[in-house]
## 1
Amino acid sequence: MRQFLVPQFIDVEDKIIGPITTRQFVMMLISLLLVFVFFKILAFIYFIVASVLTVTLFAALAFAKINGRPIHFFLLNFVQTIKRPDLRVWNRGAFVQVARFVESGVTEKVAVEYKKDPVSGSRLRDLTLVINTGGVYESED
């Protein structure tokens, strides 16, 4: 049986200059390019303010980590969490697929909407009693 080497530590980024990874190096190059553009375009006082803000932002994005993960993963997860709905409801019976035969003999699947009656307050009370009594209580239904 042949043996194969399994790669280890695949989540570690490659280092190019000392402890600096390729991603960090490229981000700092971009920030220095923006600083150069600010130097050519803006007045000196505005250049200083814009440069400090830009270098600080890019340094935070390049070097900061939250729970051992780069900050851009944290920001991406944060945005995805904000966009998700607050309440998720599992409704298995919302749509039922029904197979329908067509004249040519080929089956065609059609999604048919399935509506359940809303649960009434008395039904909820009965269900609560069943759960609280461990199944001893039986409703009238």
## 2
Amino acid sequence: MLNILIVEDEQAIANLIYVSLSDEGYRCTCAFDGKQGADLIEKESFDLILLDIMLPEIDGYELLEYVKPLGTPVIFITAKGAVNDRIKGLKLGADDYLVKPFQIGELSARVEAVLRRYGKSEKRLAVSDVLINTESRNVTKNGRPVELTVKEFDLLVELVRNKNVALYRDRLYERVWGEPFTGETRTLDTHIQRLRKKLDWEERITTVFRIGYRLEG
């Protein structure tokens, strides 16, 4: 299980991130100021750090300097959305930069992208009572195996990794089938219907009018 440190002084935001990423199968730890974050980094190894900039005790820029020699990837999460702030954060060595307010689905996608870049992509994904092992390509629901075809599995992983994000039909088709989308939706729609039935997710995989599909978290 990958270990993520959340350094965020706004407790409501920290808790939202903690719950959302924990539901996806990550082990999360929260620090509510820069000093507490530094203490945790000194004691424990993390696969990724989500770091606010405007923190009590030690700000995010200073903490990033402390983290850089460790080689741990960092995503800045901050209300400082000016272009100059983004440039400064990225030049200092942050791997990504997310401006508040943000959608939790976008955060999840960025976390997955950075971890994948570092070769730390999560091999186990979880949504409620469904567990997915991307290495063995096994899926269980309430501990019982769910038999999926190759494309059904790939489609499920794509939906889970973009939970709560409306995905366009053409993007889903091209990512799962690996070929250009011609506008014919029968194949994709059929696979979505099968996933809904096999996982009992009729209400969880929703149709987004004129766009495509969304997995509700």
## 3
Amino acid sequence: MKTPIKYLLVLALSFLITACDSKIVNEPLRVGTNDWPGYESLHLAKSKKYYNSDVKMVEMGSASEVLRAYKNGAIELAALTLDEVLLLRSQGFDPVVLAVLDISQGGDVIIAKNGISSMQELKGKLLGFEYTALGAYMVSRALEINSMKHDDLTLIPLEFSEHESAFENNKVDAVVTFEPVRSYLLDSGGNEVFTSKEIPGEIIDVLVVSKSLIEKRKKELKQVLLGWKKAQNYLIKNTSEAAVEIAARYKFTPKEFIASLDGLKLPTAKENIEIFKDSLPNAVKQLQKVMLSKKLLDKEVDTSDLIDSSFIEIITN
């Protein structure tokens, strides 16, 4: 008996789909980050071989590049600020928060030239910022808190890699930036005129993955979080030793890296449990409200499935 051609085509297609799914599952998870002390536990886990599955760390020059890579499918996991996650949701993507990596408590800043000591003194001057949700959010909140308007400043879009040179070469009078550039500019005489200390709990860095990948890569995702958990604990408990390994990735010393952590809260996996229950949902709600009012979001997004605490719960039990 001859096998119908239609049946053979369906069979061939099923084999192709199975092969593609198998390839996806067997490929290493790619984790994208830009330079930021709060993301270092992810890299530390890789260097100390805490990941039990194949994980590829992808370092990028700016948050803008990380966002582009996530949108283009060049990475599976991304370290992002919570406002960037909401922005992705508004653009039709489906990022899901798996862990809170850090909470900014002074690590994000507006630094002005020597002689400028307040936001009010920036009126009529040039302010450089990275054209991302975080950059725009910092500008909006700084202006609001200081009773200023956008027209009071001339905003200059800058990639993160340009912050230091633009500041030092007098292309801007101030810049919205963060570590490690924050430390470099303070050392060269810059003044902080606004910091994330003034907006506590509003700038939160998280690890996200596409919702569509959660079931397909559940085992590997668990291993990523187990590795991060171990590295985060090591960094918190053995900061001096960890700083020696981490500082080599930057231009500053272990002592300077430790100083850069002063502006951050690094929650453990266990602390993440409590954050997921209360403060994170509240932060999402408040952040979306602010972003909508400042027109940083063009529409309200559904956040009912934005947070997945199941992986954190698994690795802490």
